[in-house]
Amino acid sequence: MGQRADGPDRAHRRPDGVSDATVEALGKLSEALECVERARGHLYELHQLIGHADLMLDDAVEMFRSAGHPALAERIDREMLGRNVIAGRWTFQIVEDFDDGYYALFRELDRQARDELVEGRRHLYEAEMKERRRSRGVPGHEARPGTG
């Protein structure tokens, strides 16, 4: 099947026989995965922020000691520095568990659905929406790069 002069490239056209309902379901699965990708970014943000805060405690402990508050400095040093964020886990362990479990399965199921139903093609729902919404022949509304 050749390239169309105006329209999405082959990778963004649904294969013959694929229903609207299938494209919509794949679009919803993709949208859900995109939400999980955003959540994963926030999880990594948590990981980095908690790590940074833990390292800043070193300075706080020294500053309390220098300011004449050794008992408070000792308590922060003993109870807070290096503390688990969740029982038995630092944030790197939370990130690893998330990546290896929930996230890995979600990505696997998304790929399986696309491979089984639309020859692995991605973003078909969005590609078809673009075709419905763009103004043909108007600059900035080209179907794909390099066709304007």
Short summary of the structure?
By secondary structure, the chain is mainly alpha-helical. Helices cover 65% and strands 0% of the residues.
List keywords for this structure.
single chain; 148 residues
Tell me the total number of β-strands. Answer: 0
Strand content: under 5%
What overall geometry do the principal axes of the alpha carbons give? Answer: elongated
Summarize the biggest pleated sheet.
Answer: none
Total count of helical runs of at least 4 residues: 4
- Whole-Å distance between the termini? 22 Å
Low-confidence stretches: none
Overview of this protein structure:
With 148 residues, the protein is mainly alpha-helical. The chain has a domain of 75 residues. It contains four helices and no strands. Helix 1 packs antiparallel against helix 2 and helix 1 packs antiparallel against helix 3. It starts with 19 loop residues before the first helix and ends in a 15-residue tail after the last helix. The model has no long low-confidence stretch (mean pLDDT 94).
Annotate the secondary structure layout.
Elements: H1 20-66, H2 70-80, H3 91-118, H4 124-133
